[in-house]
Specification:
164 residues; mainly alpha; 2 strands; membrane; TRAP_DctQ
Length: 164
């Protein structure tokens, strides 16, 4: 299980990180070319919004859920016993899984429809295929569901601590 978790952490981090670096280089090239040569790279805005940002944001969200690094506000629970904190955090993880499941199902329906119709957007002289990026969103939400459920199970089975 730890090996799978490590593999997923590396995969999500690498793909999201590579997308971030490529996006940065693409935008920098666009700005430099526009500033010094009065030339633009066709489709920069479309590539950034349809591909780069989708990978960066949704793989990042899935990575945060995998590592359980989301923000916790424990104003009312800071003095509660560890067992109570484990139960509350476990139910929170189940609610997270349910919410991500609903979003993932909607993303899956959208991805299926986009794939069926071959979704594209026109960009100066060519059509940019956009349907593959819809599957990234569906994958990320599906991964979030699994990560949240595994975390909830670990919290409910834990007997001696809240750090799972």
């Amino acid at each position: 299980m730890k090996m799978l978790r490590h593999f997923l952490r590396c995969g999500l981090g690498i793909f999201g990180g590579v997308a971030l670096v490529v996006m940065m280089l693409h935008i920098t090239a666009e700005v430099l070319l526009r500033s010094f040569a009065n030339v633009t790279i066709p489709g920069t805005i479309e590539l950034v919004s349809v591909y780069y940002m989708v990978f960066v944001v949704f793989f990042g969200i899935a990575l945060v859920q995998l590592d359980n690094d989301q923000l916790f506000v424990e104003i009312f629970m800071q003095w509660a016993p560890k067992k109570t904190l484990r139960l509350v955090d476990g139910f929170g993880a189940i609610l997270t899984a349910a919410y991500a499941g609903i979003l993932g199902y909607g993303a899956w329906l959208e991805a299926r429809s986009s794939t069926k119709f071959g979704e594209m957007i026109p960009v100066r002289g060519y059509d940019l295929i956009t349907w593959p990026s819809r599957w990234v969103v569906a994958f990320a939400f599906s991964a979030m569901v699994l990560f949240a459920l595994f975390h909830a199970i670990a919290l409910f089975r834990s007997k001696n601590g809240i750090d799972v």
